[in-house]
Every structure is written in C-alpha cells, then in structure tokens.
Design goal:
Blueprint (H helix, E strand, L loop, with lengths): L1 E5 L5 E9 L2 E10 L4 H10 L6 H11 L7 H14 L6 H11 L5 H7 L3 H17 L21
Length: 154
C-alpha cells in the first residue's frame, strides 16, 4: 500500500508498506519536491503493487505536496499560451482538436496525425505489400472499336 510522507528537511517521499513475518516494513519508492509524471512512473516501477497514478496525485494533495499538472492540462496550457501570443494551429489539427474536445472520436485520423515517421513508413510498407498481392488481370493489347466515318453531307 502506497502513501506519501513529508520529510523533515523538506521534500516528500512516496513510500510502500508491506507486511513481513517480522512485522510491517516500509520502503521509499521515490523522493520528490514536485510530484510529476516521471516521479509517478518511477514509484510505480519500484512498487510490488503499483499504485494508480490518480490515487498518488490525490495522496500528494492530501499530504500538502505540490503536484505538476497532468500531461493533457500542461499541453492545454502550452497551447493556450501559443494562441495568446498570436500563433495559430493548422486547420486540420484545429478541426481534430475541436471535435475531440466536443466528445467526437475520430481515432484513426488522430492516430495517423500523431504517428511517428517509423509508424507511417510501416503503414506504407504494409499498403504496398497489399497492393503487390492483388491479382492482376491478364489481357492482350487494348483495342478500340473503329470510329464510324461521317459523310460530308451528314
């Protein structure tokens, strides 16, 4: 079971309590001054029973520890700052962002927009392999029917 304690000289610790034959024991999972996503990931990686990230944030608030904004909140704040300084968002991204904020889900286009070059390259490779496997029709040389000639007096 994870919990957060304030250290006497400042800072905080994410700790985990376990029950052994010799009684309860506690060990430090992570020390921090600001609970961030990296601290949470580190604590979860060291835990025998990884705590939920949201639960750790709630525990930190209860202990009086400063908590970094969640990634989406931080990204939203950065975007708002960019927009406030006069920069704009590409129209396609703007539409996707508005649709997503309004609850619409266009997961395929969002996955493609956020894909790495490696992922896009793999998708292209897969598509080309698919095209190679489509059977081709074998036909002779194309021939066209003769065009009827019009007489001069029609």
């Amino acid at each position: 079971m994870a919990y957060i304690v304030r250290r006497p000289r400042g800072g905080f610790e994410v700790r985990e309590s376990t029950l052994t034959r010799k009684g309860p024991r506690s060990r430090t999972l992570a020390a921090f001054t600001l609970l961030s996503g990296d601290v949470i990931a580190h604590a979860r990686s060291r835990s025998a029973d990884p705590p939920d990230a949201d639960a750790l944030r709630r525990l930190a608030v209860r202990a009086g520890a400063p908590v970094a904004a969640a990634r989406p909140d931080g990204a939203a704040l950065a975007l708002i700052a960019e927009l406030a300084s006069g920069r704009s968002v590409a129209p396609g991204l703007r539409r996707a962002l508005l649709a997503r904020l309004q609850g619409a889900s266009d997961d395929d286009s969002l996955r493609w927009a956020t894909a790495t070059d490696e992922q896009r390259g793999q998708a292209l490779h897969d598509l080309l392999e698919l095209a190679d496997r489509i059977p081709r029709r074998r036909r002779g040389v194309l021939s066209f029917p003769p065009l009827a000639r019009r007489s001069a007096h029609g």
